[in-house]
Amino acid sequence: MSSESLADAAKERGNALFKAGKYRDAVKEYTEAISQDEQNAAVLLLNRAAAYLALNDFRNGLNDCRFAIQKQGDAASAKAYTRQAKCFIGLGELSQAADAAETAKAVSSASTLEQSQANDVLNQVRDIQKHLASFQSYNQEKNWTLASIALDQAQKSAKLTDSTSPTAWKLMRGTLYLQRGKISQAHSIAMDMYRADPSSTDALLLGARVMLANNDIQKAVSQVQSALRNDPDRQDVKQFLRKCKALSSLKDAANNAFKLNNTQEALQKYSELLTLADQDTAQDAEPKKLKAVIHSNRAILYSKLENFPASIADCNAALELDPGFVKPLRTRARANLSTEAYEEAVRDFKKAVEESAGSAEADSLRRELRSAEVDLKRSKKKDYYKILNVSKTANDNEIKKAFRKESLKHHPDKGGDEEKFKLCNEAYGVLSDDQKRRRYDSGVDDMDGMDMGGGMGGGMGGMYGGMGGASGMHGVNLADLFGPGFANFDMGPGSGAQYSRGGSNFHFG
After folding, report:
1. What span, in angstroms and rounded, lies between the C-alpha atoms of 401 and 383?
2. CA-CA distance, 102 to 354, in Å (whole number)?
3. Using one digit for the tens of pLDDT, what is the confidence trace for 264-293?
4. Which of 405, 412, 467, 501 has the greatest CB tally within 10 Å of its CB?
5. Cβ atoms < 10 Å from Cβ of 63
């Protein structure tokens, strides 16, 4: 069998395989045919280019189109230029694609059908260019959502996906993922680029940006150094390396100040870190997790200084950047507790418990949540600590002194408020009794229905029942509490005596 016959047979097998969608096998047959028939190689090259196009192997397809056009010379066909334009589209080289399509239309021998096909490709190129121009415009405005939609439309017009898009488009997509906080997707794009070309500076740089966005500065430094070794003259790589090194140094200084309790220095360093992290974000993408950690650390420092509004503001900023970040949720919950925003505290603790499921800190968060729920419940009733103006950690002596002060201030015979006076006695009755105080603190009882030792509603007799002339309160002698002038202090109805509003001395009846 002659070489020409062998070539024809291989070509027919290739055509059959192409129609069956077995493009790789078709490439092999076309390659065999080309090796057997140099004279008709141009047609065979265009057939193989079509198979490469179907495989999204645009570079090899373009090479075949170029060789075919070279072999055809002045008689190069419109089909060759149209197919070349499609390969240029796949490579993202749109100006060359438009030129090739225009040439296809201009070929004198082109049929009406071929001219129509070339015109379709030219319109396709223009449509892609329009969407990419929109992408650039939205990207400059930092409208990442619309920029992403525009890139989607460009890919759709080009009949490409993330995996088959040109490298430049993959880089745009990866950067968009970063800017939208989709770090894992950005990492996937970077890995795809790296697998396709391990020497790609763009792939290494994107990977470094992913590391920085994921708050792994040291890995970012290592990755960008590899990129710089590949291309020592890339200014954007040099700039990013300087930024990463500066962030690393400043972060270490801030964390060391934090650990050494140098609060003001740490605050200053974290603020400097935020300023540096925000530099060149249009190019490098916003390092959201890094910034979230900085805001979270600074929030803890502000809480330590009891600047709770500033702490909450930093927590809000951290959670806007990283909504599932447990540490600022916990810090904000504690700050809300300190400012008596109990409902907000409970909500934050619940979210923190949900986000920390399965982690080592989940149990302690659940305990804090239960405590906050008790505080919320109590805030809607009587807060005995607030009534006596003492902290929840006050000892017995502090509670006794506070009761003496508040009772004197609110006693009706001293011009005080009788209801507040009663509340002081009620609060003292609970907080001065270890068992009742523990139950109150734990929130196990409905406070309004808790047995206070003899009924508060009908008077103070339940607390002071059985008092003689110098009766005691749970072991506390009134003379000790108020001084000798108040030894015969009457506690009102139910005590077996009445207080007199007529004088400054208080007597049992």
Report:
1. 18
2. 60
3. 999 999 999 999 988 876 556 678 888 999
4. 467
5. 16
